[in-house]
Amino acid sequence: MAKEEKPLKKVCIICAKGSIEDVYATLVMANGAVMEGIEAKVFFTFFGLDAITKKQFKKLKTATVGNPAMRMPGGLPFPSLLGVLPGVEAGVSAMMKSQMEKLDIPPVDEFLDMIVAGGGEIYACRLAADMFKLEMKDFTEHVKGILTIGEFYELAGGDNTQIIFT
Predict the structure, then answer these.
(1) CA pseudo-torsion sign 96, 101, 105, 108
(2) Who has the most CB within 10 Å: 20, 25, 123, 153?
(3) Can you tell me whether residue 157 is helix, strand or coil?
(4) Residue 24, in any domain of the structure
(5) What is the Cα–Cα distance from 33 to 47, expressed in whole angstroms?
């Protein structure tokens, strides 16, 4: 007896890291969801808050130290020790942003615009906001509110919902 497949109705994505690659993974998944007609709610916590903080969202960097998947041009492994040298993180981040521009991947604020315009909702974590002494005025206009994790879980209720942690 075949089990009936039920389409995904809602994704709730949690972004806890502030590196370019982690933030963009979140944004791509949320935007893809709204483009497919799937309800999307995105919860930024801890260093992920950098993606929605007015002073930080344009300053995201690529993690160069302790990133085992980091590669140099040509696919060679990136020696993590190089990441501590002055200017390396900035150079790698600039290269990453350049590659993204070539692929016509929008900057963070434009991605947030697209997600919100598509019906997606963006939230900040109450605990992390309190920890970093951030208030609603510190976040971009895309942020609908500052929620506790319990309040976010309430938004995640319902059939055919997935919670994704990036």
Answers:
(1) positive
(2) 123
(3) coil
(4) yes
(5) 23
- Assess if residue 90 is contained within a domain: no
94 within a domain of the structure (yes/no)? no
Number of domains in the chain: 1
Q: How far apart are the C-alpha atoms of 30 and 39, rounded to whole Å?
A: 9
Determine, yes or no, domain membership for 20. Answer: yes
| pLDDT band per the 50, 70, 90 thresholds, residue 3 | confident
d(CA 125, CA 131): 10
**CATH code for position 140:** 3.40.1260.10
CA distance 92 to 83: 9
Exposed e or buried b per residue across 38-54, where buried means at least 16 C-beta atoms within 10 angstroms of its C-beta: bbbbbbbbbbbbbbbbe
Of 41, 33, 91, the residue nearest 61 (C-alpha)? 91
Structural domain boundaries enclosing 39: 10-61+108-165
Does residue 95 register a pLDDT over 90?
Answer: no
**Structure confidence by residue, pLDDT tens digits, 99-158:** 767 777 888 999 999 999 999 999 999 999 999 999 999 999 999 999 999 999 999 998
CB 27 within 8 A of CB 50: no
pLDDT digits (tens, 9 = 90+) for 57-87: 988 877 655 555 555 555 555 555 455 555 6
Q: What is the pTM of this model?
A: 0.82
